[in-house]
Amino acid sequence: MKLNEAGIDSALHQIEAQAIPENHPATVQLGELFGEHTFFLDTGGLAIIEPVKTDGAAESMGRVVKLARWSDESRKNLSPHEPEYTDIVVALDRAA
Predict the structure, then answer these.
(1) How far apart are CA 88 and CA 26, in angstroms?
(2) Contact indicator for 51, 61 with CB cutoff of 8 Å
(3) Ramachandran region of residue 56, left (φ > 0), alpha (ψ -120 to 50) or beta?
(4) CB 96 within 8 A of CB 9
(5) For residue 10, what is the enclosing H or E element?
(6) Cα 58 to Cα 55: distance, rounded to the nearest angstrom
(7) For the chain, how many structural domains are there in total?
(8) Does 73 fall in a domain?
(9) Does a structural domain hold residue 96?
(10) For position 55, what pLDDT does the model report?
(11) Which residues make Cβ contacts (< 8 Å) with residue 21, sequence separation at least 6?
């Protein structure tokens, strides 16, 4: 799921991560591997946010999905793994 600036800002106020800018060189390769998403890096590795269906909720919600772990202590290399759906759900249109 590609997030707009407001969605990215809202997510970043709820999770400890950095969004990879859309114009970053790694975004092309990540998109080829994982599809078109807004990518986030945190202490655990690479993640995306997938939409969550909510019955009648006023806010748009998303679940954090881990896609790759850091493969070294310097956090320069990532090792992809099967998507790991977390229990972390964020409001995507929440006022920051």
Answers:
(1) 25
(2) yes
(3) left
(4) yes
(5) helix 5-12
(6) 9
(7) 1
(8) yes
(9) no
(10) 76
(11) 27
- Residue 24 within a domain: yes
The confidence score (pLDDT) of residue 43 equals 95
pLDDT digits 0-9 by tens, 37-96: 999 999 999 999 999 987 766 678 999 999 999 998 899 999 999 999 999 999 987 654
Which range of residues forms the domain containing residue 41?
A: 5-91
What is d(CA 11, CA 65) in angstroms, rounded to the nearest whole number? 13
pLDDT band of 10, cuts 50, 70, 90: very high
Rounded to two decimals, the pTM is 0.90
pLDDT for 89 equals 95
Q: Check if the beta carbon of residue 54 is closer than 8 Å to that of residue 61.
A: yes
Domain membership flag for residue 78: yes
Per-residue burial over 48-57, b = 16 or more CB atoms within 10 Å of its CB, e = otherwise: bbeeeeeeee
